[in-house]
Write a structure and sequence with these properties.
457 residues, single chain, 5-stranded mixed β-sheet, mainly beta
């Protein structure tokens, strides 16, 4: 489908001669013989203008008349029915409903009384994107095409944005599941789509595309092999992977044009955060780099003790993470200096800590005990800790006066965020991992990697 493939520009490639920063060179006046060649080339390319130009005004890049097939296999694979979606019989309060599937399912996303997610299989046409009723767990709709593993739906107004296994980016009606638009990206997905400043940014393996989330019109696209992407109102940060290493670019959010380019010495280095005017890169396995957010100039380098570390959270100009040496760290984003270090034990390496005001929450375990920790962001002082039955498997979720987490022993905990007192715990029916979703007094969890649970608080 040509309508969805518009305006690609090549990404900056790593070069062996590139120092920490490679400023763009001003254009040079071409020799006379080059003018003839350029003119001839322009004429040859004119025939391809239909394929490379942005869609005309009012024309959305839609495949198949903006329709996706309804997928009855999703009903059977996740058992969305009154027989299998049942109330828990546990003595302790637990899930009001559960669905247990046969295919990997995404973490749940919730909005306006519905739970959204997707399943995926080995082939692109295995799985679906779906919506279920938040109170009963019964299926509202599903569409064909598996969602890309490692991503989850993104709610934008009345649209559900999903990255499909076949490389498509699709916007579905949140009420009916009908497709508003579909874009063929020509690549597989490296990260979930992001929304910043009213613009949707997606990073398939073929490059980065900025899309109007309502009309589905690509604003700009840049081709290249994407390693990681961070997007906000100030710009889009992309790490491109190449045969000789990686390079990180700051792209203008309106045009996609490169503002600056930075490369560090280690291969596979990718962008992980922006904080206090600093762009933070991670080099495998345990090195953080800070580069100036305006110029790309390298500011500092930090070896994180203990090797691998969790994803980074940002608060008050600091980077918050846990390393596999059993400590949580706060690092000054401008200087790279360690502000504090607190022993919390080991834990999930997939999710960053959660921050609420002046408090950071994270799980940590030893060989004997497991805890949910609350630490002071400024000092690292322990505010409180709560024993959990098994290692915390989800990123803590702050909801009003509560902090919610799930563990590997089937429990979801509701904890007073100020005192650390356990308010209640709920039986989810299986191992709870990754992220929880909370809406209107309910919490929703992924269970055993292939099921979902809805729990009234």
């Amino acid at each position: 489908m040509s309508a969805g493939r518009v305006g690609w520009r090549p990404a900056p490639q790593p070069r062996d001669t590139l120092p920490g920063v490679a400023p763009l060179q001003p254009p040079r006046r071409p020799p006379a013989y080059a003018l003839f060649t350029a003119t001839l080339l322009a004429c040859l390319l004119a025939a391809c203008a239909e394929r490379t130009s942005p869609p005309a005004e009012g024309r959305a890049p839609v495949q198949g008349g903006a329709r996706l097939s309804q997928d009855p296999s999703c009903v059977s694979s996740l058992r969305f029915d009154k027989v299998h979606t049942a109330r828990s019989s546990a003595r302790l309060p637990g899930a009001a409903w559960r669905v247990n599937g046969e295919l990997p399912v995404t973490v749940p996303v919730t909005s306006e009384g519905a739970v959204y997610g997707g399943t995926s299989g080995v082939l692109p046409d295995q799985g679906c994107v779906f919506a279920a009723d938040a109170r009963t767990g019964l299926l509202r709709w599903s569409t064909g095409g598996g969602i890309s593993q490692g991503t989850w739906p993104l709610i934008v107004g009345d649209r559900v944005i999903a990255a499909l296994q076949g490389g498509e980016l699709v916007a579905l009606d949140a009420r009916t599941g009908a497709a508003h638009w579909i874009i063929e990206t020509g690549g597989l997905w490296e990260t979930e789509p992001l929304l910043a400043g009213g613009v949707l940014y997606a990073a398939p393996s073929s490059g980065v595309v900025a899309v109007d989330p309502v009309a589905g019109r690509p604003r700009w696209q840049v081709r290249g092999k994407v390693g990681a992407m961070v997007a906000d109102r100030d710009g889009v940060l992309v790490s491109w992977l190449g045969s000789s290493g990686s390079v990180t670019s700051a792209l203008d959010p309106a045009t996609g044009r490169e503002r600056w380019r930075a490369r560090v010495d280690r291969a596979g280095t990718v962008v992980v955060a922006r904080a206090a005017g600093t762009v933070v890169l991670r080099g495998a396995p345990n090195v953080l780099y800070g580069v100036d957010g305006s110029t790309g100039r390298r500011l500092w380098e930090l070896d994180v003790p203990g090797g691998d570390s969790t994803p980074v959270a940002v608060a008050r100009g600091r980077l918050l993470l846990r390393s596999d040496d059993g400590n949580a760290y706060a690092v000054d984003a401008r200087t790279g200096r360690v502000a504090w270090r607190t022993a919390v034990g080991f834990g999930d390496d997939l999710e960053p800590p959660a921050v609420d005001g002046a408090t950071v929450y994270l799980g940590g375990s030893s060989a004997i005990t497991s805890y949910l920790w609350a630490l002071d962001v400024d000092t690292g002082r322990v505010r409180w800790r709560l024993d959990t039955e098994a290692p915390v498997g989800t990123r803590p979720q702050v909801h009003g006066e509560l902090v919610l987490v799930g563990d590997a022993a089937t429990w979801v905990y509701a904890v007073d965020r100020r005192s650390g007192r356990l308010r209640s715990r709920y039986a989810a029916g299986g191992v709870v991992d990754q992220r929880l979703a909370v809406d209107r007094g309910w919490v929703f969890a992924r269970v055993d990697g292939k099921g979902l649970a809805g729990i009234p608080l």
